[in-house]
Amino acid sequence: MNRRSFMTAAAASVLAPAVFGRDAAAQTAINYDAIAALRTMGLDQENSQVMSTASYMMDVLGPRLSGSPGIRKSGEWVVDKMKEWGLTGARLEPWPVDPTGTNNGFPRGWANTKFYLAATSPNTFPITGISLAWTPGTRGLVSGECVLVTEPDEKTLSEKYAGKLRGKWILGQAPIVMRAQWDPVAKRYTDEQLDALEVPARPPEAGTPSTTPPPAPPQPVRNSEQAFDRNAWFHREGALGVFATNKGHGSVNVVGAPRTTQLPEEQIPRINIEAEHYGRIARSVQQGQPVVVEADIRNEWFDNPEMFNVVGEIRGTEFPNEVVIIGGHFDSWHASTGATDNGGACSIALEAMRLLRANDAPLKRTVRVCLWNGEEQGLIGSRLYVANHFGGGRGVPVAGNPHGEIVAIKRDHSRFQAYFNLDNGAGSIRGIYSQGNRAVIPIFREWIEAVRDLGMTHVSARSTGSTDHISFDSAGLPGFQFIQDPLEYEPKTHHTNLDFFEALQPEDMRRNSVLLAAFAMLAANHPGKLPRQPRPPPTYAPGANAHAAAGTTATTPARSTP
Question: Could you list the residue range(s) of the whole structural domain that residue 413 is in?
Fold first, then answer.
């Protein structure tokens, strides 16, 4: 199905009974006049504030690495803006106290305050790169020759390099072999692709030969190899630092920088540089030509930074204790200003709240915006919020737990209506995933008809993962993620040094603000509770929260559609 409608909001209001042949109660939940008011303000270039909000957040305030001074400065600015717009309860809401003493996985905050890196011999040229988060700097200006070291095991490293790496830079991997980018980087979903998302995946049919090769048997890993840390070995040998690279074509991917409890002096500086610069240096070394690089990198550390989510709300008139939440993750990586991941989405959520408040939109339930901290480290802020406010899900830390697991607390879901998350880049909203919640699909289809001409046309029964709606969904609460045009998100801006304001598309931003405001209002005024999915009691295996304990970046898999 791919029906199109180009009716104006006023025409849709007149034709509503014919177009939406549903029960009267459902019709009264869609206030077309209110949606028209949101559109009038939100789509007008002069009246919209979404791009100015995004510019200040990205251009003036800068990156928002979890636990850094930058994210707190940005959060305080957002709180002031929400108060200026008339939202209530605007604040930095602290994370629950962590009885394990690890500050919910952030015993130390971190920020890069200076980065200088350049080749000085045989040719001089600047090197584009960035320190990986939670690694030390150089403690002043240092200079050394680059050595290509790709051997993985301690025995070979000791035989070839013991005593030979002091004062050297380590090139820890072979240069990337890049190919031409034959396909356009920026893409929008086609109608056929969106239609395909609405069709549940079909399981293999009887008699159909499988095209998927059987999985390879697991390879045993010796304990000595599993425990060996190359970077620690380089540090003991006195190397200046380790260079790495990935993605290529001008991108510096900074994901995979785990938090650590180690002191700076216990680590080696780790630096990601452009694939083109890395390749030039590595190939010169392979040609037998030494390359000398100098650096002055300053990184600062902060013990037990105060961790928080950013919240604000508009109180409902009839059921103020019931809540609809909109939002996305506020934290970013530090190689750029985090526009498509995820400052643009935060600006959209804030603009949606401003539109609702400025138009005095009718809201029976409270609408709350929540901007999450610690998403990049494993959905920590949203997970703790769900456990603290509603119970269920993966819960909160427990003192004395050696594995870092978390346990559920008492469920209280009666006050919750829905959570709508935005975190799939900067593209226009084209639909919404129902997370396998089939009962909510006809409701969403009805809502979409009021805004179809803005490009939102589809509801997928499938599930999607890896961002903050999962914290709600896994707790048995209706949590949803929008389908967005991919644009340049992969491979250009996602976790790279190219994720700046310029990647945001103004028309998409304005449309998304109206769509998010409309969905928040429709959910707040919906007669009765939105359908929920039955959930089995939560079970917790040892090490279930090992990524949080270890400080690694977690990728939450998509839950299968029932």
Answer: 9-106+305-550
